[in-house]
Amino acid sequence: MDYIKKLSPFIAPYKRYAILNIICNVFYALFGTLAMVSLMPMINVLFGEGKKVTSKPVYNGITDLKDYVENSINYIITSTTENHGSQRALLYMIILIISLFLLKNLFNYLALYFITFLRNGVLKDLRNAIYNKVITLPISYYSEKRKGDTIARISGDVNEVKNSLLAILELIVKEPLTILFAIIAMFTISVKLTIFVFIFIPVAGLIISRIGKSLKKQSNKVQEEQGVFISTLEETLSGLKVIKGFNAEKKFNDTFNESTSRFYHYSNVLLNRQNLASPTSEFLGIVTIAALLWFGGNMVLVDQTLSGGAFIGYMALAYQILTPAKDISKASYKVKAGNAAADRILEILDTKSVLEDKPNAIVKTDFTSDISLNNVSFKYEDDLVLKNFSIKVPKGKSIALVGQSGSGKSTIANLVTRFYDVNEGSITIDNEDIRNLTKHSLRDLMGLVTQDSILFNDTIRNNIKIGKQSATDEEIIEALKIANAWEFVKNLPNGIETNIGDSGNKLSGGQKQRLSIARAVLKNPPIMILDEATSALDTESERLVQVALENMMKNRTSIVIAHRLSTIQNADEIIVMQRGEIVEQGKHNELLEKNGTYKKLVDMQSFE
């Protein structure tokens, strides 16, 4: 249960509920034991075995407590029987038993009532913490991880931890206290019989612990496999068009079926181990009860050292131990499963971001001079994508990056926005290394339009407002007009209130791209980064958006990554890249006159 220490920051805000739960469980265990003990005087009344006490007993201190309580009950029974008959005495005993069972169940409900706030509170805070971690970890983290596995951790694993929290409190408070109070009561009835019971407890404990030894390992396998098939499902939904277009349904179906088959196998092993706990502990308990019947029966019938009422009360207390012992074995398995789930959750929460802001990071609010890439080298894995790369983008100038796929153009956009850090060299804004700035203030200076139009399942208004939450409807419409998107948005049934579906799939590729451009326009940052911003537009839309972009980029610093060279002919400088290095640079006409790589790219596109 060491993970409880690790999760203590999430438990601490709700510790008052844990304390109230513990207090209620103490009373639950106490009244549960008293309810069983109260059976003894009732049986004595029924069979006339009670010791007659005619004078009111005197309390002589804690050492005399047992005799005082017993004599007091017998005195009440004796006086009630003499004055009102044995039926009245029996009625009083029944009322006492009902009252004790009522109190027992009332405190049981209150214990569960308070623990609900603890469990659901920890569940909420854990999910919030993981989600916060998910959006703060660098993009590079997710290139190595399955998205479905992360989803499984934030849903299933967190839920497993929630369930184990109740099990832990049962394991360390509720059930042990129930057993402890029952054993104390059993000792007061018969020391000899209780010692006999203790012979069986270690044996039962050893057998149950052996069953649950590998439970954490099995639970971990189940949770990992859940991540695999959720990943497969997520990838299937994202790539449904490709799967159907290439008739690959069978391949993906087989992959999913293999994962669910493994999940089926691991779950069967895990659940069968858990299911073994209850019948095993119950059988061992019945064996103990049977031994008690034989040994205790001798004490009643042969030795006559124990009354019938005391023996039946003792058997009730022994059964009182049996149920919590069974629950403890179940709870211990839940704790092991929760431990495995907590390990997976903490793996995410403990992950250190390689792009953390420095303790004294600068908050930059303006852009005055230039952006410079100084001898930058970068690799995603083994091979360098950029090699000793240097460019300078003065304020107000537009720089275009062109080249074949894989030449490193989009990598520059990733580095300038600090989605990744350079391996060598530096990137500066106004001569300040961007690693010395807060990521938030750096990205506040930039507007980004990506090659893939990333939109969300929400209204057009909320998608556009992501960059500027305070924007008015008039500002949103103006941004849509600049991006040449208003012409189709105004004709939609609900205008800017129209929901565009998952990933914006209710719209065409060109419409999605224009909304992405409108989003960047609304933010109105001093630096624009356009990564293939017009790639998804038809020729007519491209021409109109290009004019809009040129108007928007006036007096604004722009880094334009382009595949279609027609869109960047008016750039202040064109950088031609090949395998992460600059092979040519200059204006459009200058590069054409050189008759080099750029001229070849233009000629190739003129035949498209």
TrEMBL record:
Q: Name one GO cellular component term.
A: plasma membrane
An annotated Gene Ontology molecular function? ATP hydrolysis activity
What SMART domains would the database entry show? AAA
Transmembrane stretches, start-end? 20-47, 89-115, 179-208, 283-302
Matches recorded under InterPro entries: AAA+_ATPase (IPR003593), ABC1_TM_dom (IPR011527), ABC1_TM_sf (IPR036640), ABC_transporter-like_ATP-bd (IPR003439), ABC_transporter-like_CS (IPR017871), P-loop_NTPase (IPR027417), Type_1_exporter (IPR039421)
The ABC transmembrane type-1 domain, residue ranges: 19-337
Q: Which UniProt keywords apply?
A: ATP-binding, Membrane, Nucleotide-binding, Transmembrane, Transmembrane helix, Transport
Which Pfam family is one of this chain's hits?
A: ABC_membrane
Can you give the residue ranges of the ABC transporter domain?
A: 371-604
Membrane topology classification: Multi-pass membrane protein
Where does this protein have coiled-coil stretches?
none
Q: Which cell locations does it reside in?
A: Cell membrane
- Tree of life domain: Bacteria
What name does this protein carry? Answer: Antibiotic ABC transporter ATP-binding protein
What organism is the protein native to? Aquaticitalea lipolytica
Primary gene name: msbA
